[in-house]
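Support case: user asked for a sample of complex input and structure output to validate their parser. Sending the pair below.
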Amino acid sequence: MIPAKRIHTVEEYYFSKKLREVRGLIAAGKPIINLGIGSPDLQPPTVVVTALEASLHDETAHKYQSYQGIPELRNAIADFYQKNYNVSLNANDEILPLMGSKEGIMHISMAYLDEGDEVLIANPGYPTYTSVTKLLGAIPKYYNLDASTNWLPDLAKLEQQDLSKVKLMWVNYPHMPTGAKATKGFFERLIVFAKKHQILIINDNPYSFILNDEPLSILSIAGAKDVALELNSLSKSFNMAGWRTGMVMGKAAHIQHVLKVKSNMDSGMFYGIQKGAIKALESSKEWFTELNKIYAKRRELIWELATKLECVFDKETAGMFVWAKMPKNSNLTSEAFIDKLLYEKDVFITPGSIFGTQGEGYVRFSLCVSEEKIKEVIKRIEQ
Ligand SMILES: Cc1ncc(COP(=O)(O)O)c(C=O)c1O
């Protein structure tokens, strides 16, 4: 059987391939420490697990669920946005729960892109925006980010290009992989830009509570709902990556388009997961304070490790990664640099090049590893 042509537009996800190799090394007895992937190793709030367990005996627990999620979940998301971002959302029609924000990237793209449409995507950035765009026959149009502008796009420079075919623009602040933060002023300029060029902006916002004192939603900007959507997720904020719980928020008309796609693809989110998600969203700010105490200690150690590797990094960042520039004299590509560490020190970190050409020369360390393990890595590097 010949697969669809679209299958040739993408490659297997880097981590899907590389972690197979890492698992092979572990199976062969190598004591690999994985500082590569951003999958939280900590537990969700206890009440979340209790709520899931308790829900299993509810009469409706095992039935198909509403395509829009149960009303209590949408209400909890609305309250969470009001409390944490000062954004008012109508729980009836401005919120759509998702099975992780990653699926939302596909649903939004399917709702808005035709073949040949162009999509503005950050380089470096999360690779899924590119894959989804290509799978739909649309065209990625990269905007380069670099340290000199704190990894924010230069909108004036973008405007010098022909933007007439651009339908969507993906932004993601706090930014993965660099940890750069947006400012309110930048989001204001972005909304003006979006209105001028009739582009739908999507801010993918899963990192705003990790090592970040001022969570910011693009929807807090006046008039943003006309031209912007926001994706959010419980994966990192509440250590629930495997639960697959996220959401998209925005103007009712936009959400309706996304729902039209999504309701044809799945039949609702498992009831118990929704009950657990509600409890997570109801957490007090104390939850983030405690979580961030752990990440802050780990980050100190990763800074120490990066320094030992002669890498250079910015300390004014958010999110669960440290993005570091490789030593000038290494003469290695980032993939060769991380392979050397993998094969010589049994340590896996992520090469910056998988996030785009602008990521070459950088590596990304994850904070989803215990202090003990990071100390062990430091020891191995010192040897
Ligand atoms: C920038 C970015 N967006 C989205 C996701 C996907 O998150 P979720 O678990 O909600 O699908 C990730 C996960 O690593 C990410 O880094």
